[in-house]
Design brief:
A hairpin with a 2-residue loop joins strand 8 and strand 9. The chain has a seven-stranded mixed sheet with strand order 3-2-1-4-7-8-9, sandwiched between helices. By secondary structure, the chain is an alpha/beta fold. The protein contains six helices and twelve strands. The mean pLDDT is 98. The longest helix has 21 residues.
């Protein structure tokens, strides 16, 4: 049984400060990446306890070089570095039995800790087939394209609620409760890791009831950018459509192609 883990940093317990915790030049970044590695190991251990024979972890934050490979459980493998064709979902495939989202955060505009969608500097909102989504939804759709269900989402209480609204079967591990966008009531690492380990085991034990999330085709991604200049740049994407001063859409027959269009529009915008 192969398990895929996508690991971001903003949803890790104890991580609350933009830049300070989330950027390589941040004053507390080294501690944050250590906490991130600890939560990744908890999910790996839970997966192995549940019978996984292969665990692949994809470093999914920023430069995607955050996880400390020398401290990762040696029974897992790590995908690190950027750019990657599938970004936060590099490593997902039809051979995976389940996907786990670790350290995830809520979408832009919600009161979650460090909430944003893909690019906090440029993206205001993203819709897939007119359903507003954050990174949880975008990446769940990509997992669904490969027939893989997302069985566990770990992060704050806001992303936990966001995940359950989209994926009724999903389990969540709420390791912190948002107070403001840059403050939270956090579980200490030992308790956060124990919760993640337990929820991973339980999510995989009930794998038979999990279902992939597969949006209808054709698939349309719509992006509202933070200003009109960004949208104008994004609309250079072939076959995209400028809907209004700040909103661009791209449609494709399948989710993977639409996702690639989403990536390209955001890259062009910046």
């Amino acid at each position: 049984m192969k398990i895929f883990i996508s690991c971001d940093i903003e949803g890790i317990s104890g991580v609350v400060a933009s830049g300070v915790h989330t950027s390589p030049d941040g004053t507390d970044y080294e501690r944050a990446r250590s906490l991130m590695t600890g939560e990744a190991n908890a999910a790996i251990e839970g997966a192995l306890n549940a019978g996984a024979t292969c665990v692949v972890v994809n470093d999914s934050h920023g430069p995607m070089t955050n996880l400390l490979i020398e401290k990762i459980n040696p029974l897992a493998t790590l995908i690190t570095g950027s750019p990657k064709p599938l970004a936060m979902m590099q490593g997902i495939g039809k051979d995976c039995a389940a996907a786990i989202f670790l350290g995830y955060h809520a979408r832009m505009g919600t009161p979650g800790v460090l909430s944003h969608t893909i690019s906090g500097a440029s993206v205001a909102n993203v819709w897939v087939n007119d359903m507003i989504v954050g990174e949880t939804g975008i990446n769940a759709g990509l997992a669904g394209y490969f027939g893989v269900p997302v069985v566990l989402v770990c992060g704050d209480d806001i992303v936990s609620r966001e995940a359950k609204e989209l994926l009724p079967h999903v389990r969540t591990a709420t390791v912190k409760t948002a107070i403001t966008r840059q403050s939270a009531l956090c579980l200490p690492p030992e308790r956060a890791q124990a919760l993640i380990r337990q929820e991973t085991e339980q999510a995989l034990a009930s794998l038979d009831s999990a279902r992939p999330w597969i949006p209808d085709s054709p698939v349309t991604f719509k992006i509202e950018f933070k200003d009109s200049g960004l949208a104008e740049n994004a609309s250079r994407m072939p076959y995209s459509k400028l809907l209004d001063a700040k909103t661009v859409a791209f449609s494709a027959d399948d989710y993977l192609t639409a996702f690639q269009g989403l990536q390209a529009m955001i890259a062009l915008a910046r």
